[in-house]
Amino acid sequence: MLSVQGLACARGGLPLLEGVSFALQAGQALVLRGPNGCGKTTLLRTVAGLQPALAGEVSASTDSIAYAAHADGIKGTLSVRENLEFWAAIYGTRGIGAALEQMNLRALADRAAQNLSAGQKRRLGLARLIVTGRPLWVLDEPTVSLDAASVALFGAVVRAHLAQGGMALMATHIDLGLPEAAILDLTPYKARLPEPGAGGFDEAFL
Amino acid sequence: MIALLIRDLRLALRAGGGFGLGLAFFLILAVLVPLGVGPEPATLALIAPGILWVGALLACLLSLDRIFALDFEDGSLDLLATAPVPLEAVVTIKALAHWLTTGLPLVLISPVLGLLLFLPADAYLWLILSLLLGTPALSVIGTFGAALTVGLKRGGLLMSLLVLPLYIPTLVFGAEVVSRGAQGLAVNTPLALLAGITAGAVALLPFASALVLRINLR
Asked: ipTM > 0.90?
């Protein structure tokens, strides 16, 4: 279960969001929407425990979260299989066969990751989520550079994950074909910027 | 943990991994010094301990910025930070992998380079022993420097400035062990200090490295 209460977060010292609250139960998905720069990535990083919240709390143990960022964390000189086996070993799970199968990577398993196309790399990055075996997926723009067929494939993977009692929190602009997913628009939670001049640079010297 | 070590070693050994960079630098330095200084055995024997230790130190420095930079760029550092492994263990493994790919080869090749520099026969044992005891400190301190500057573009210069002062005690005592050994004097004191610095660095710095890494990943 993930519950976020009154969360405020900042990027580069600048408050971006405040008062964000939502909850996720097993089997639910939440899609974050909002214009570029509104704080989707920052919110996801805060939930994943990579940065502290300015205020509010996230009540999910970080042990239940698998985080997938813009960058896939793929090592180009390792093969697809070696990349996945490394993450399986780190997360203490066994078997990468299901992940290869579900993300349609079986035929590419022994190819060096640097020779994959952008979309294939993305599929490898998403296959890592399946390997982690964690219930809460925190996904940042998971469908970047995926073609329509792969988006459908990924949508099916997320649905299968939800059906097993998993949860997904994702920032995405395109439709994954998950009508059951709730949508949260972050625009109303934009943090008020401090008044220019008030408590500014000069005052530090007065 | 073992998986991370195996992955790092595998990455270092594959194409573009940078294995051998420090080794090649060490070799080049030891070959060029006799050419530059002149082939006087007496002069070379006098400066050999210092040259070998400075060479080993700079060779270590050369490969430091790769410890975290590559993982940071491709996003695996973020993923490792959210993985069920303590970051302290991650930085320790990273330092160990750096030592195995840089420090250990330097230790193994150093007797050959000692030969090029007319190192007195008595000093070989102390050369190998002092490098064996001292280079782990170079890797651990270097990992701390790399963690401090991770995420900075072209952070190599800043990292060198931060790390070099911390390297000086190791350099001083390491070279002292070898030159005392070459003169047949007692080496206990510098050897004990060298080992002490390494033990202290290995015990304490991983916590500092993990802390600055967490701050840098925000």
From this structure: no
